[in-house]
Amino acid sequence: MRLSILSSKGGVGKSTLAISLSKELARRRTDVLLIDRDLIGYASYLAGIRGPGLVTSVVEELDTKPWREIKVESGSVTILKYFGDGPRYKLDIEKLHRQRNLGERGWELYRGLLKAKRYSFVIVDNAALVRPEDDIVKHELDTFKGIYPDMPIWQIFVSDFLDVDIKETVRYANLIGSVELGSVLAFVINMVYPEISTRVNHLLDQIVNALKARMGLTIPFSEKVYQYNGDFESFPILPEVGKMATKIMEMM
Ligand SMILES: Nc1ncnc2c1ncn2[C@@H]1O[C@H](COP(=O)(O)OP(=O)(O)O)[C@@H](O)[C@H]1O
Ligand SMILES: [Mg+2]
């Protein structure tokens, strides 16, 4: 199952959820691929990947390995640093388009990684506001489908608790179009504090219905994950993510 984590705004907790969920699924004896498409590469950084990401490695023709496998109890998470080199990604992509041989080499590298293991879960941590028709999303997904043609694809939308952000995230979910196909797995409202949780849960029920999502989830503010700066291995798994993992395992 491929799970794409999406939001209309940065800083709402996509990477935090992506890391927590990857680790929780791996703990349940599965092999997980975490595609870090964050432009800053937070998950990759925590995983100790300090070199350039896949796209930059290919453009610069570097012989680096922009991924790392980390054992989590009886499973594993392989973190792929896809971008992570900041704003140069635009120039890198342009260059890949101009020089087809470079592009081909990149996709060969990516296909190699996808074939190295039979992943049960692929979690994609995105930048804010990506659209399926964006070049790099489309190319990556086409290559992916070439290797995993039957893997179901689900979306997880994340928002913080502000009304304006929740509204914008719902609009984004409708805009990027998979709502019609019924492929919204979850709508997550993050960093909810106790005083507003009743109101937020009520709103969440309405959103889950409107988006035909399989589940809604609120995640409280957690001191333990806030601005976490340790290593991937010790990243705290949010307890609420356990519920999501159970639901996901049931859907397999
Ligand atoms: N539930 C939470 N409780 C406390 N802090 C959180 C929570 N979720 C995310 N954060 C913090 O918010 C900031 C942004 O989170 P991040 O996952 O990087 O967001 P995004 O990937 O959407 O940009 C980080 O400092 C992170 O530690
Ligand atoms: Mg992020």
Automatic annotation (TrEMBL):
Gene3D superfamilies registered for this protein in UniProt: P-loop containing nucleotide triphosphate hydrolases
Transmembrane segments: none
Every CobQ/CobB/MinD/ParA nucleotide binding domain range: 4-226
Annotated InterPro entries: CobQ/CobB/MinD/ParA_Nub-bd_dom, DNA_Partitioning_ATPase, P-loop_NTPase
Pfam families per record: CbiA
Annotated protein name in UniProt: CobQ/CobB/MinD/ParA nucleotide binding domain-containing protein
Organism whose genome encodes this protein: Metallosphaera cuprina (strain Ar-4)
